[in-house]
């Protein structure tokens, strides 16, 4: 295998392909780029090409290719690219459930027929090549594969309603719709819809049921898990009033109900949705019915309306979809906050506007209702263009890139060049009248034409391509990607093979190293992911992971919390379990009365119970990293609102040695009143449970002070607040208070501590933790109250927080930022914070009390800062433009200009430089331009390659990689780009450092016609010479001609390998849908010197490709000493150096004028 994979993982692929290895060519269809009806391909037979496939059938119109995958290397029996293994290693979301076709090529990009090999493939199983089937003396090549997947398709229109199912009395009628996709179930949702219909009353019966004195109806009311419900009110659908009430066992009896009657019987009770079931005859004079009641759940959005651009006169459709219990059926639509008339627009979950007018532009959102409450969607913007108004300005906007240092004008600092950019905005689709929720013909403003320029540097000419014209073209599909790693919060060890749930749907497992990759589904606003530990030692880890909706990748490190130690309980006795024991008295306790345990089917459980209660104690600051969800709930207005926690707990109840989860209830939750000191919180405290499907907290009960009827307590005993709940399917609970004093904090991230507006970094995960108020302020004895994480975009990020206008120190916060595994560094605060560095104007900066983590102790890490969350005061000009904004000013925060006040982070690893001949903003995938000299040739798949260079020398050295075309006839000798990286010292090896230098990967160029092996030249900038080359790398390059002369001992030159070689060669390759994530992961592996590890501490001796030895140049005497020893020579040197500097400045000035 390409990497050291665990034996368990190997078994997955081996088991899946067991049949494939023994299959004969006749039994399995084989081919390249072949669909489900594939065929055999023999050596010498031409293989179907991509162009052949594009001409095939209707599938090409509704499908697209995935990126390329390579999980196996030839060896043993051959090369095996199992679909099961690909889904395991790359993540299940990377390949659709039912691939239509599969294409395979060698890593040299040749078709199997071109190399004379026989292969097998099946889109539903994968690809395999068997050594025993190849011509004598030949073995299988190394292959990578890709799959053809169907695009999202939409339902057709509903057909007419059918006939009523009954000729008399109540019945139902049906209507159907069809899905035009290649698979009948390709469209989400149901193909059948039912509706009630009422026919004339049946003879001899009343409006609801027949009367039969000797007959009886026997009924049962239960939950979905079988738990009986007492006190449910039973009625007949057509008769008002209650005909029965369920008893303690959930049963009820209705005499006089005819056995032949199949009437609908309904039941309802507080806190549950109405349940309906049809009575069924159980004999000559009895009828039975079982009614299932679901607990009421507030609605939540599964599809939000999306922004659209249209021309006047075109049509537009906004779509909204909510789920909940019961399923929401009432929708309302709003335009700029005003309710739209339902009768005028005839809307439901979809809002269709025809013949658009300019006054219909603006912000749209929907609301969905059910019996439990309402939920509000996100906002969608509609732009209506006037006739003739261009959607995309053909003139590019300014976008400055930094040129190499040796291209700068002497004495003027770094030079920048405007290469232009096209705004990332939408264009109207050509038709503009699709009734579908998606926008398949969507177009975006992007690069239409590039122009070539030349920059004259000190000793060479630097080519560059600049944007000359923008225009509307087909959008690249945005694919939000989240990668990360799950580790134990107490030990840092990876959570291996944990099951991953997206909402309630399983999508895969973490790897042996705890890594995971998730492709964000379209229209997602909250990515709710649950990690379930297979060993049962860790509580279910529920996270709401921030992501970049524009398609850039984001990296997260997820902390899993170990379950509490098991406690044995006697089910026949009253049991009390403390909640929290962190250096203080418990915050409360869980009281389980005798006889409160039950099986999942509702039957009582007697015996010993193994209980594991895990408490997330906010009095421990480190526990914030492992807290579940993001502490949000849906308020009465249907909007997401924040909670302030007093603690969270998870409950695991089992019979000893059993995997069955036991239920319990009613259970009392008692909270110590002396732990709640903030005004109003004692009355507002509630008990919540977590809905793992949407990551939102839902109210279970309120709290009441223990009444006078309770036994009188002594003065020194604690007073408790008591709430009640039942432990059923949900196991995560929260003691929270809704908080209404809220603000937003503006944060930006930069490439370096120069904080240049044109060098902002996108995709940085910024986290804000609300801390305890300052000492002496009357507040709760806790360390943190809530936390939030957001991802920076092109205009920074706005983080929600609690704030106070009267007391600046009433609320404080700790803010940190990470990019991949790298911690970013905020502006300094010693000896006092400077407004120009922090980014906040005075006197607001003093009121916020900005302090970096090393303010009091320079030895501490500089990975965050604390501030007072002082709400801006109306009428104070210095506080009107950030960095703290009122809660209702979110849009003002999001759209704030870069010169408005904000807090700043910068990358610590700033000692590197990247230059691309064809400009590309890695945080904005839509900025990709198709060109033979593009560094990234494929906008759907980004392959990052790094070379590890070891340096023996007394200091750190800058290492440059010069990347040019090597074997492609159209790019040979032409520059792709430059990469500079400073070496990092090995903390355990004095005098040794290493650099991880990026180079352009070899492979197909953007036209997908021919590969290019990049000509890479690596040169340390100093007095260095090459002393060693990795033996395996040297042997590989010798076996894959043409070799490159490498006589210059001050550099290393190679034609980059096509294969992803791995750490044994000193090469680190990662392929991902996000260029930034691919690079961050590859750098982490390079630092660690392994193919599957991750480190930010350089291990210079592990996994190196080249070794250089560098020495310091001899010290030159200073000018004063030279004047004393040899005045004439010193003055001559001064005149000569001044003349050279003047000539260089003249050349540079004329060069820049020419370029302008």
TrEMBL record:
Q: In this protein, which residues make up the domain named Ig-like?
A: 299-383
A Pfam match is CILP_8th
Q: Does the keyword Signal apply?
A: yes
Annotated localization: Secreted, Extracellular space, Extracellular matrix
From the UniProt annotation, give the residues forming the signal peptide.
Answer: 1-20
Per the record, the domain of life is Eukaryota
**Which cellular components does GO assign to this protein?**
extracellular space
The family database entries (InterPro entries) matched by this protein are listed as:
CarboxyPept-like_regulatory, CILP-1/2_8th, CILP-1/2_b-sand_dom2, CILP-1/2_C, CILP-1/2_dom, CILP1/CILP2, Ig-like_dom, Ig-like_dom_sf
Task: Enumerate the UniProt keywords alphabetically.
Answer: Cleavage on pair of basic residues, Disulfide bond, Extracellular matrix, Glycoprotein, Immunoglobulin domain, Secreted, Signal
Sorted alphabetically, which Gene3D superfamilies does this protein's record hold? Carboxypeptidase-like, regulatory domain, Immunoglobulins, Thrombospondin type-1 (TSP1) repeat
This protein is called Cartilage intermediate layer protein 2
Q: Could you tell me which species this protein originates from?
A: Sciurus vulgaris (Eurasian red squirrel)
Lineage of source species: Eukaryota, Metazoa, Chordata, Craniata, Vertebrata
Q: Which gene encodes it?
A: CILP2
């Amino acid at each position: 295998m390409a990497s050291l994979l665990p034996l368990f993982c190997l078994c997955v692929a081996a088991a899946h392909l067991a049949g494939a290895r023994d299959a004969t060519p006749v039994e399995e269809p084989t081919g390249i780029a072949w669909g489900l009806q594939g065929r055999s391909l023999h050596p010498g037979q031409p293989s179907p090409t991509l162009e052949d496939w594009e001409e095939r059938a209707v599938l090409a119109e509704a499908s697209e290719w995935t990126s390329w995958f390579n999980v196996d290397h030839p060896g043993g029996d051959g090369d095996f690219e199992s679909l099961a293994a690909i889904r395991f290693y790359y993540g299940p979301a990377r390949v659709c459930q039912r691939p239509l076709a599969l294409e395979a090529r060698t890593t040299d990009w040749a078709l199997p027929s071109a190399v004379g090999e026989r292969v097998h493939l099946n889109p539903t199983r994968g690809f395999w090549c068997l050594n025993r089937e190849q011509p004598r003396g030949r073995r299988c090549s190394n292959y990578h594969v890709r799959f053809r997947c169907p695009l999202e398709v939409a339902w057709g229109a509903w057909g007419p309603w059918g006939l009523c199912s009954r000729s008399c009395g109540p019945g139902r009628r049906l209507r159907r719709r069809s899905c035009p996709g290649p698979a009948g179930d390709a469209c989400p949702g149901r193909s059948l819809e039912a509706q009630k219909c009422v026919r004339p009353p049946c003879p001899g019966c009343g409006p609801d049921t027949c009367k039969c004195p000797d007959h009886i109806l026997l009924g049962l009311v239960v939950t979905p898990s079988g738990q009986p419900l007492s006190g449910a009110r039973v009625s007949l659908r057509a008769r008002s009033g209650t005909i029965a009430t369920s008893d303690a066992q959930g049963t009820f009896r209705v005499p006089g109900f005819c056995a032949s009657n199949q009437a609908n019987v309904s039941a309802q009770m507080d806190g549950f949705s109405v349940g309906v079931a049809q009575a069924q005859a159980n004999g000559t004079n009895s009828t039975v019915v079982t009614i299932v009641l679901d607990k009421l759940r507030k609605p939540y959005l599964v599809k939000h309306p999306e922004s659209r651009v249209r021309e006047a006169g075109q049509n537009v459709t906004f779509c909204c979809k909510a789920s909940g219990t019961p399923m929401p059926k009432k929708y309302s639509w709003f335009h700029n906050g005003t309710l739209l008339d339902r009768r005028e627009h005839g809307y439901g979950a979809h809002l269709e506007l025809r013949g658009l007018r300019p006054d219909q532009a603006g912000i749209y959102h929907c609301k969905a209702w059910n019996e439990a409450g309402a939920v509000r969607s996100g906002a969608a913007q509609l732009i209506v263009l006037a006739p003739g108004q261009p959607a995309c300005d053909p003139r590019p906007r300014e976008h400055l890139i930094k040129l190499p240092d040796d291209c700068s004008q002497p004495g003027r600092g770094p030079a920048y060049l405007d290469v232009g950019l096209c705004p990332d905005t939408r264009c109207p689709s050509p038709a503009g009248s699709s009734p579908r929720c998606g926008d398949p013909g969507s177009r975006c403003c992007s690069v239409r034409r590039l122009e070539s320029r030349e920059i004259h540097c000190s000793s060479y000419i630097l080519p560059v391509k600049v944007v000359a014209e923008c225009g509307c073209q087909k959008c690249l599909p945005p694919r939000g990607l989240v990668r990360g790693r799950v580790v134990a919060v107490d030990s840092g060890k990876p959570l291996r093979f944990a099951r991953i749930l997206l909402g309630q749907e399983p999508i895969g497992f973490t790897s042996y190293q705890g890594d995971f990759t998730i492709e964000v589904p379209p229209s997602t606003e909250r990515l709710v992911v649950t990690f379930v530990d297979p060993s049962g030692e860790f509580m279910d880890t529920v996270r709401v992971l921030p992501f970049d909706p524009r398609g850039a990748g984001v990296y997260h490190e997820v902390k899993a919390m170990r379950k509490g130690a098991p406690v044995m309980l006697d089910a026949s006795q009253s049991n009390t379990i403390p909640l929290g024991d962190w250096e203080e008295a418990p915050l409360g306790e869980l009281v389980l009365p005798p006889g409160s345990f039950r099986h999942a089917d509702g039957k009582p459980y007697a015996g010993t119970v193994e209980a594991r209660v895990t408490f997330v104690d906010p009095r421990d600051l480190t526990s914030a990293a492992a807290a579940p969800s993001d502490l949000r709930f849906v308020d009465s207005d249907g909007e997401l609102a924040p909670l302030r926690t007093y603690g969270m707990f998870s409950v695991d109840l089992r019979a000893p040695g059993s995997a069955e989860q036991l239920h319990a209830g009613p259970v009392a939750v008692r909270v110590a009143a002396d732990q709640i000191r903030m005004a109003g919180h004692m009355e507002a405290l509630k008990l919540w449970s977590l809905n793992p499907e949407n990551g939102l907290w839902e109210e279970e009960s309120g709290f009441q002070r223990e009444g006078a009827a309770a036994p009188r307590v002594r003065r020194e005993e604690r007073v408790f607040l008591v709430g009640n709940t039942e432990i059923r399917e949900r196991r995560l609970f929260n003691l929270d208070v809704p908080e209404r004093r809220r603000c937003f904090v503006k944060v930006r991230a930069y490439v370096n501590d120069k904080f240049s507006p044109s060098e902002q970094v996108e995709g940085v995960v910024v986290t804000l933790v609300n801390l305890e108020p300052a000492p002496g302020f009357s507040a709760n004895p806790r360390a943190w109250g809530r936390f939030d994480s957001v991802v920076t975009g092109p205009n920074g990020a706005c983080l929600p927080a609690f704030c106070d206008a009267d007391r600046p120190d009433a609320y404080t916060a700790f803010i940190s930022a990470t990019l991949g595994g790298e911690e970013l560094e905020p502006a300094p605060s010693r000896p006092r914070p400077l407004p120009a560095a922090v980014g906040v104007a005075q006197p607001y900066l003093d009121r916020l009390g900005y302090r970096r983590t090393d303010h009091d102790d320079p030895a501490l890490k500089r990975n965050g800062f604390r501030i007072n969350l002082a709400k801006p005061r109306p009428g104070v000009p210095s506080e009107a433009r950030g960095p703290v904004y009122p809660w209702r000013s979110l849009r003002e925060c999001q759209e704030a200009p870069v010169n408005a006040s904000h807090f700043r982070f910068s990358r610590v690893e700033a000692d590197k430089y990247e230059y691309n001949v064809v400009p590309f903003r890695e945080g904005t995938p839509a900025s990709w331009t198709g060109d033979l000299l593009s560094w990234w040739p494929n906008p759907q798949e980004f392959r990052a390659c790094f070379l590890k260079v070891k340096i023996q020398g007394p200091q750190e050295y800058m290492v440059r990689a010069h990347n040019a075309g090597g074997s492609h006839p159209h790019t040979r000798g032409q520059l792709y780009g430059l990469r500079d990286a400073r070496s990092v010292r090995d903390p355990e090896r004095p005098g040794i450092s290493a650099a991880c230098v990026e180079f352009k990967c070899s492979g197909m160029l953007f036209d997908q016609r021919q590969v290019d092996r990049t000509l890479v030249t690596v040169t340390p900038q100093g007095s260095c010479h090459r002393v060693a080359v990795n033996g395996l790398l040297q042997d590989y390059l010798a076996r894959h001609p043409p070799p490159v002369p490498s006589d210059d001992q001050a550099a290393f030159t190679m034609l980059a390998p096509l294969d992803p070689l791995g750490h044994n060669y000193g090469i680190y390759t990662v392929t991902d849908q996000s260029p930034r994530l691919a690079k961050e992961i590859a750098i982490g592996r390079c630092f660690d010197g392994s193919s599957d590890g991750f480190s930010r501490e350089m291990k210079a001796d592990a996994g190196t490709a080249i070794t250089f030895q560098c020495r310091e140049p001899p010290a030159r005497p200073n000018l004063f000493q030279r004047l004393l020893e040899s005045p004439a020579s010193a003055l001559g040197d001064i005149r000569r150096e001044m003349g050279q500097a003047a000539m260089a400045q003249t050349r540079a000035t004329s060069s820049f004028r020419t370029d302008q």
